[in-house]
Amino acid sequence: MSSSATRRSLAALAMTVFLSACASEPAPVAELDFSAESAWPYLERVTDPAGNPDFRAAYREREGILAALDQSVIYLGKPSSHKWFPYRTNDAVISHERMLRTLEMLRGILLKSNSEEEFQGWCLHSFDIYKSVGAARTGRMLFTAYCEPIFEGRLQPEGKFQHPLYALPPELEKDEDGVCLGRRLGDGSLVPWPERRGIEEGGLLKGLEIVWLSDPFEAFIAHVQGSVRVNLPGGRQLCLGYAGKTQHPYVSAGQAMIEAGKLTKKELSLARMKRHFAENPADVQPVLWQNPSYVFFLECEPGPWGCLGARVTPWHSVATDKDVFPRAGPCLAVTRLPVAASDAEVRMEAATCLLFDQDRGGAIRAAGRADIFIGTGPEAERLAGFTQEEGALFYFFAKDVLGSVPSKPETE
């Protein structure tokens, strides 16, 4: 999301909270507030070799990893990226130069390693490894997934296409993360914009329509994900990215339905929500208005784009809280990820995924949450909706002093 920061900003919007398009139920997550704030430091160095993650699985995904790595390097080449460094742990300072060196070193290791074991040896030799403190400093993370949906639409309202996505009002000032602070008055003060209901009932965005969708819930999903592709008549596809959002916090529509007794937690899925709204159209607006946040869009090149202005890469870009974790940094997620077993079934398999921290989301807060981008379109949407798994997250940085580099690293 360009400064799409919050871009799908809402992407992190816990696709998991209302997207679960398969019949199977996600594994239950133990009662723990994964979005609760943790005290600094957010990363702790791994000092026991037994606690090191296994890099070997990442070696099989070199093409995707290198594509995502390039996006982080491009970001670090921008003068604005220097603002966010140094990143500090309790025992290390990660400078801008050190982060860039980490990425270039990782690229070299990926290209020169001839086997998974050699890749593992080089990584353990070359990098200092840190583990996220996770929720309540337990080391436990909750991983969800997000995608870029594809819907049908029109450039003018017609027939069932009556639900617009809007451009950013030009009078709204926003911060560097795309959060709209309000409209500035002549005396210099800012007047915040109203919540979702007030915007829609007041017709405040009239004239700023970009495209019309056929369903208000689809428009809401686009808001949640922060980007969307819209198929138009004649074969044209319109790509919309995040342009900004109001200052109000995101509230889950799925959770609102559970609290209102519309669905049970066990029933919650995208398909079930769509069916409920089709059968009970009067419920749509009251439920969606429970989320006060509102997202604005702009037409963009195919992406989607994360908050660094980097194109996010399926299975190799992750959204985290940018007040907690280092921007552009490489990391390993050790968790379970979805695999399509059939058209109707998704199974979760143990996985170690090498990611780059390139996005953020409105529901992805604190040291216990991470949201993995897994692609564009219906299949990605189906898999993303099934992902709600615990695991661990490791960041790694080039060692300050490598000493002599052996001709062949030791392997575990």
Structural features, described:
The chain has two domains: 204 residues, Barwin-like endoglucanases, CATH 2.40.40; 151 residues, Barwin-like endoglucanases (Ribosomal Protein L25, Chain P, Beta Barrel). The chain has eleven helices and 19 strands. It is an alpha+beta fold. The N terminus and C terminus are likely disordered. A hairpin with a 5-residue loop joins β8 and β9. α3 runs antiparallel to α4 and α4 runs antiparallel to α5. The protein is globular. It has a six-stranded mixed β-barrel. Helices cover 23% and strands 27% of the residues. The two termini are 39 Å apart.
Total number of helices? 11
Q: CATH H-level name of the largest domain... which superfamily?
A: RlpA-like domain
Query: Could you describe the largest sheet, including whether it forms a barrel?
Result: 6 strands, mixed, barrel
Please give the CATH architecture of the largest domain: Beta Barrel
Largest sheet, spatial ordering of strands: 5-18-15-17-16-19
What is the name of the CATH topology of the largest domain?
Answer: Barwin-like endoglucanases
Derived from helix and strand composition plus strand pairing, the structural class reads alpha+beta
- Give the tally of β-strands: 19
The figure for the number of domains is 2
State the distance separating the first and last CA atoms.
Answer: 39 Å
Q: What is the overall pLDDT average?
A: 88
The percentage helix is 10-25%
List unreliable stretches of 5+ residues.
1-28, 402-412
Encode the helix/strand succession as letters. HEHHEEHHEEEEEEEHEHEEHHHEEEEEHE
- Kindly estimate the percentage of residues that lie in beta strands according to DSSP: 25-35%
What is the C-alpha radius of gyration, as a whole number of Å?
A: 21 Å
Indicate the overall shape: globular
CATH top level assignment of the largest domain: Mainly Beta
